[in-house]
Amino acid sequence: MTTAAAGSPRTYQVRTYGCQMNVHDSERISGLLEQAGYVRAADADGNPDVVVFNTCAVRENADNRLYGNLGHLRPVKDKHPGMQIAVGGCLAQKDRGDIVRKAPWVDVVFGTHNIGSLPALLERARHNAAAEVEILESLDVFPSTLPTRRESTYAGWVSISVGCNNTCTFCIVPSLRGKEKDRRPGDVLAEVRALVDSGVLEVTLLGQNVNSYGVEFGDRYAFGKLLRACGEIDGLERVRFTSPHPKDFTDDVIAAMAETPNVCHSLHMPLQSGSDDVLKAMRRSYRSEKYLGIIERVRAAMPDAAITTDIIVGFPGETEADFQRTLDVVREARFSSAFTFQYSKRPGTPAATMPDQLPKQVVQERYERLIATVEEITWAENRKLVGQQVEVLVAVGEGRKDERTGRMSGRARDGRLVHFDVGSLAGQIRPGDIVHTTVTYAAPHHLNADGEPLSHRRTRAGDAAEAGRAPRTPGVLLGLPTVGAPAAAPAPTTGCAAH
């Protein structure tokens, strides 16, 4: 078996783990590979010519997951001459050459700062018949200059910054993503306009800490101004952002959210803990009173705001009283959803060496109580919406049971997941279209709307979905060679691999 017929392009597959940043980075990886002549492998293709793992290093089992998947691929590669495996992302930035040492069948390892090098590294590894490891310590260019193959016709990620200047003791991200680098507002808005011109209706502005946006060019109000500028873009119907940080969250952002019609009244505001002592140990430079004050001001300006959060249970030294304080803040904040995590050690973080690491059974028991409290609140908040009309942006892959139930799914303006009955509009509604419907049932994590839709608006995003067109954002290849359609089977050559 050979990798591809002579003269035909090589196929690729990207496997993504982790946060929205990684999802968007994978869109850039796909854009780079396609600009270099590769073709995306069909979902059912178990033998792509190139497999790229875009990794995460945040969770405890990230290493095991990667090496397990690499192990499963080894026999596939053995039967597939010329196949290449590349590993990028945060775990690659952390483990570097150890990946090739543990899995010598890997061809390329690249870091978070040099995604743009991937096509050249793949070609060099093929030419030299040796692994290529290239890890940069800092960005040489902002990654949004790279070509991007968007996964959605109706919603797009737009990075406004990369990296983080905070020093949270549980987080490894700053050491892997580097110090914050801000993108110029004009560049951000140009990318947003390009997406809207291709039919995208919803944009999510991305940053490790969007509220500190502007620190590089000396404007602490830059993020609120950016939100307002997005409000002036014709055809952009929804604007979201993630993630803010309570320490930098300012009232001008609340005003911009409330006064800019296309900015959604949804806010992801990480809490992490409700205990001031734990927050101090986490090096989170706010306290519960400040956090709840932000929530109160947001709701005063936008009573319909849906607020989501992140919470860590079992941080070293957390007492039962500390945990109870977290439950108190959860009850007071009335979150619409919460991403909950059991604390896990991450080597290289200060928290990993702290005393008073909690037993697994204690963390698990507290976690279960937290989940029960969160679901009690989210269910109660969702029940308040029964009988109300909602605007739904129809999505792909949000409803796992849709095929069986005859429903479609999408997100309301506040970010809630809605499963809706299509009624007499069966076959007419496409992903990217807008539907208005009435909520008939509420569960802790979703809403159902089982009556006939009140209205259906066909959109350019829906047209693109129907035609199978995904937006592609052009970029600059940073002086790297355009590989083109690589030859199917390179002749082995001798030479030194550049590391």
How much of the sequence lies in strands comes to 15-25%
Helicity, as a percent range: 25-40%
Gyration radius, rounded: 23 Å
State the distance separating the first and last CA atoms: 30 Å
Average of per-residue pLDDT values:
86
Number of extended strands: 23
Placed side by side, the strands forming the largest sheet appear as 20-21-18-17-16-19-22
DSSP helix count? 15
Low-confidence stretches: 475-499
Overall morphology: globular
Helix/strand/pairing category: alpha/beta
Question: Could you describe the 3D structure shown?
Answer:
- Residues 475-499 have low confidence and may be disordered.
- The protein has helices at 20-35, 62-78, 90-95, 98-102, 118-128, 173-177, 185-197, 222-230, 251-259, 276-282, 288-301, 320-333, 360-383, 402-405, 460-467, and strands at 11-16, 39-40, 50-55, 84-89, 108-110, 132-134, 148-149, 155-159, 161-162, 181-182, 202-206, 238-242, 266-268, 306-313, 337-342, 389-394, 407-412, 417-421, 434-438, 441-442, 447-449, 455-457, 472-473.
- It has a seven-stranded mixed sheet with strand order 20-21-18-17-16-19-22.
- The radius of gyration is 23 Å and the shape is globular.
- Helix 8 (222-230) runs parallel beside helix 9, helix 9 packs parallel to helix 11 (288-301) and helix 12 packs parallel to helix 13.
- A hairpin with a 4-residue loop joins strand 17 and strand 18.
- The protein is α/β, with parallel strands linked by helices and 499 residues long.
- The chain has 15 helices and 23 strands.
Secondary-structure map:
Layout: E1 11-16, H1 20-35, E2 39-40, E3 50-55, H2 62-78, E4 84-89, H3 90-95, H4 98-102, E5 108-110, H5 118-128, E6 132-134, E7 148-149, E8 155-159, E9 161-162, H6 173-177, E10 181-182, H7 185-197, E11 202-206, H8 222-230, E12 238-242, H9 251-259, E13 266-268, H10 276-282, H11 288-301, E14 306-313, H12 320-333, E15 337-342, H13 360-383, E16 389-394, H14 402-405, E17 407-412, E18 417-421, E19 434-438, E20 441-442, E21 447-449, E22 455-457, H15 460-467, E23 472-473
Helix pairs in contact: 8-9, 9-11, 12-13
